[in-house]
Amino acid sequence: MASGIHRLSDRQIKAHKQRGRLSDGGGLYLQVSTWGTKSWEFRFTLHGKTRTMGLGQYELVPLKKAREEAEALRQVVREGNDPIEARNAAKLKAQIDAATSILFKDAVEKCIARKEGEFRSDRHRKNWRRSMDAYAVPVIGDMNVAHVTTQDILRVLNQPVDDGTLWENRTETASRLRGRIENVLSWATVAGFRAGDNPARWMGNLKELLPTPSKVAKVTKQPALSQADLPKWFADLRKRDGMAARALEFLTLCASRSGEIRGATWQEIDLDARMWKIPGARMKMERDHRVPLSDAAVAVLEALPRVEGSDYVFPAVRGGALSDAALSAVMRRMHATELKAGRKGWLDPDSGLPAVPHGLRSTFRVWTAERGYDHHMSEMALAHNVGSTVERAYQRSDMVERRRAMMADWAAFCRGEATAGNVVRLHAGAV
What we know:
- It is a single chain.
- This protein has 431 residues and is of the alpha+beta class.
- The protein contains 18 helices and 7 strands.
- Strands 1-2-3-4 form a 4-stranded antiparallel β-sheet, covered by helices on one side.
- α11 packs antiparallel against α13.
């Protein structure tokens, strides 16, 4: 212990009640107020000027800690610097840093708010947020956005998913996520929260570290029924009772996605015009879609009960919309019945796997191709993007009346009124 310092003890400090100042040596003092409050002060002389610096109350800063702080301050003085000015400068820097820093998760919120007018639909906005909350925020959400590096982006994109990585097993999702992270970091740069290159950019950065999405993406085809099997399967389906069976029947006749069918409301249906108008908010491509209804599709709708208190065309028993699992269960039961009868079941001819609801759209697409229907028209029926961006910009017609004839022909085929053997090849567009 150096001479002249560490003069006080905790016992002495606690026992002292008189107003005044007690010296611990080396410029450290205990100040006792009129009311008995005890606090630390550090006094120093620099450039001929004596200054006093508060170190906090004794109850919050014990003797040992006060001595440690005093020693650090004495070193600052020995170096010719003013500890009060150094502390003020540190506080100012902390304030500046706080004003110009933001966590990644908060940057996501601000970026989404800024992009509000750019989202194509509420669904697009929700998908944006959902992917961030599911994959990015858990990994880098609590990081200062200024400190996010390329290695952090790789941690997000290479996180384990389904016995592999996100980039390997959910490549489309991961690719969209990368673009969204890049947008957030670009906003943060422009807003003054970070500087330098964007670590989430693809060209000249992640492109050199990750395999190209087109090469790593696993293309999976949904098991579909063959044309030969579809009329027989459809006849079996029509014999089955239940709302899920009717929804699956309607799905087949319209060649629609499960979500479009399950979310259908009576407000979207015009039975007089024999038209189903699906708003863009419910469509995968996020644009309005019209489905011309065949006589068979209308017959399904007209036979349905109207459930009081529900706007859904195909409501669940307990209210709300049917689940995707309900439609899949119908197909599984139909397949199981075939197997039990000693038959092969309802299988995809290529994969040998049991057919699923979404695969019925593939069956329809093959049927239209072999029937000779115009490619663009069949793609429109499936609500796919048709042609290039420029072509779509000039495409003003959805060919709905021409599609009406096609869907009537498809319904006849499903119901066994036309078979694969009756297929007549037509020139493209000759429908």
